Each structure stands twice: as C-alpha cells, then as structure tokens.
Amino acid sequence: MTLKILHVWSGNLYGGVETFLTTLATLRDDLRDVGLDFEFALCFDAKLAAALRDAGAVVHPLGEVRFRNPLTLARARRRLRNLLQRSDFDAVICHAPWSHALAANVVRRAHAPLLFWMHDLASGRVWFERLAALTPPDLAVVNSEFTATTLPRLFPTSPFRLVRYPVAIDPPAGCDAALAARDDSRRDLATDPDAVVILLAARLERWKGHADFIEALALMQANPAWTAWIAGGPQRPVEQSYFAELAAMLDRLNLTARVRLLGHRDDVPRLLAASDLFCQPNSSPEPFGLVFIEALRAGRPVVATNLGGASEIVNDTCGLLVPPRNPAALAKALTNLVDDAAARAALGKAGPARAAALCDTKIVLPRLAAVIREFVVPDASKS
Q1: Arithmetic mean of pLDDT, 236-250
Q2: Among 91, 135, 144, which residue's Cα sits nearest to residue 114?
Q3: pLDDT value at position 221?
Q4: Which CATH number does the domain housing residue 116 bear?
Q5: 89 burial class (0-12, 13-18, 19+ CB within 10 angstroms)?
Q6: Are residues 201 and 239 in the same domain?
Q7: Structural domain boundaries, residue 352
Q8: More confident of the two residues 345 and 1
Q9: Using CA atoms, how far apart are residues 311 and 144, in angstroms rounded to an integer?
Q10: Average pLDDT of 263-292?
Q11: Model pTM greater than 0.85?
Q12: How many domains, in total, are found in the chain?
C-alpha cells in the first residue's frame, strides 16, 4: 500500500532544504516504487513552489505567514486544517522548527501521525524552537549524526532515525562530452582552460567561510596555477551587504583578477564539472552539507573544515579536512592539491563511490520508506 504524505515547509528562500524537497519531487516515480506519494504545503509561492510544480508535484498554498501578524498565522492554519479534512494523508512531515511551530498543533487535532524532519542544529533557545517544542512529534528524522546530538534540546523524548538526503548518482559522462562541457563553461567565464579552478558554491552566510577562503587565496598569490569561482547571490538585504564586503575584500587583497564572484547560479552541477576541486571552509558546523555530496558525485576533491556534517561526509579517500577559522592551514591544503594533479585525480576518482555510499537514492529511498512505515500505520479503508 502506498502511503500519502504531506510535507509542510514555511521558508521563503532557496537553499539546501529547498533543493532537497525539489529532489523528492523529481524522484516521484522512484518514491512510488517504495510505496510513498508526497504532496507539499508551502507558505510562500516562490521559487520552490515553481520548482516543485515543474517536477509534477502537487503544491498546496497556505499563504505567507508572519508570526508577528496573527491574522496570517490563523489563515494558514485554517487552510492546513481544511486540507487535512478533505484529503486522506497518512502522515504529515513538518520540516524544521518554524514549520513545526506553525503546523504541529493543527496536525495533532486532525489526529494524523506527526513527523518532524530536522535539517539544522537546535539551540532550544529561539522563540520558534520553544513553540515547536510544545508539540513533540511521533518521530524525528535527522539528516546527520551531528544534527541528532542537538535534537534533545527540542524533543528530548521523541524517537529519531537518521535518513540522509537522497542524491541521484549519475554515471559519469563520456570523456569527450565532459571535456567539451568543461571547456564551454570556462570559455563562458573567461577562465584559462589550463587553470586549476577552485569552486566555492554556497549561500551568502558568514559561517559558510567565504572570508576565510579569500584570506587563504591571498596567501597563495605567488602560485600562478589557480583561479577561483565563488557562486552564490544575495537573497536578503543582509546578504547583499555581505556580498559587497566580499567584493571589497577581493579588491583590497588584489584578487579581483583571479577570483570571480559569480552571483546566483542555477547551474552548480555545470560549475562543478568545469572546476578541479571544491572548497567550503565553514567557520561553524554544517548540519549536513548537501553540496559536499554534489561535489563528490561530480568527482571533485573536497576541502572542508573538520566540523559537523562535513566530517561525516569527507574522509581521506575523497578530500581534506582542515581546522576551522585557519586560513593558513586552508591555504596549505589547497596548495597541495593545486600543485599535485595526481592527488586531485585520486581523490576525485573516489568521490562518486563515497557519495553513493551515503546518499544514493537506491539506498536512501527504501530506508526512508521503512522509517516512515515503522511509525505510520496505513489506513486499510483507503485501499
């Protein structure tokens, strides 16, 4: 029997969680093969909603919600309540504390099984975390072992299961096709075809380590072999200010000719294919780090800081881990790979297998189905 599950998400930006939800939508046929059918209830009819619809998913708008505006909150909860009354969902999954704070009590009153998917670290001190904690779920799903260590700050008595994000591990492109795509991308970005390209692709948040990355590159200026691309554009005013700071930092360190700020990109897989190694030196722990999996899948060595989810993904077969907030150590690791093509090739070759072991859809989707079925009893009357 297929379980019909409603996913509730309240975010208005586009990052890792949104990428994950979009991936679920694109895997609709694979999910049905393991007995799952997903629909989505969203507060913001923005980029994520469009991506889900493009993938053929059913999207239920709840309306924009601001907790400081009780009317928007009441309206969204009423729409969710009506949706649950007229539809036959076997369970509801709230993604992250904000969505849980919005929807959990409505789900409880509808007597539907309530699941919580934890995507970030919990402090237990933020107002929406405290609201979420008032309604413990039947099950919490965590995206990494590190994330799980903070779950008790929200739900100390709720059972949890680890399910990493599913990623389709595509077979590598043919040599000629891969080289042609690589050359096209470099031509588009006015990059020397022989340069060793270091890519950082991340949301414009300070803890992602952009400034440490730039400081490390400044220490490598005597080495002429490398070029760097930084992908990621502002989605909020604070990110616009940070973007301007990074541009000023590049200018001050005389790096504008060698480091390209690419802004927002929808073609990160293409950038990965055209690069030689990936680096994201977080200064604070990454809950999981989907982009590390994407880089490994693309056969790119990963240089990251030894924090959080990155330390569960990257090992010495596929990349290098360095101490956080240490541009000198980062510069040394990057220089070693820039100067050693054989090492880059060996680490890159191991990447797809490492990504598959952690996140291959053939592993993750059956596990997700088993985890949900462990806590959700299907209603036989629907068959």
Answers
A1: 96
A2: 91
A3: 97
A4: 3.40.50.2000
A5: buried
A6: yes
A7: 175-359
A8: 345
A9: 10
A10: 95
A11: yes
A12: 2
The predicted pLDDT at position 169 comes to 81
The CA–CA distances, whole Å, from 361 to 27, 43, 180, 237 equal 9, 28, 28, 36
DSSP string for 263-282: ES-S-HHHHHHH-SEEEE--
The number of beta carbons lying within 10 Å of the beta carbon of residue 264 is 11
Same domain, 142 and 239: no
Residue 316's CB: how many other CB atoms inside 10 A? 9
Q: Is pLDDT at 224 greater than 80 in this prediction?
A: yes
What count of other Cβ atoms lies within 10 Å of the Cβ of residue 328? 12
Residue with tokens 């592993």: 363
Using the Cα atoms of residue 212, residue 215, residue 217 and residue 223 in order, give the sign of their dihedral.
negative
Q: Cα separation of 164 and 331, whole Å?
A: 30
pLDDT, residue 383, reads 42
Residues 199 and 272 in one domain: yes
Same domain, 93 and 106: yes
pLDDT of residue 378 exceeding 90, the answer is no
Please tell me whether residues 348 and 372 are part of one structural domain.
no
Cα separation, 333 vs 347, in Å, equals 13
Are both 128 and 232 inside the same structural domain? Answer: no
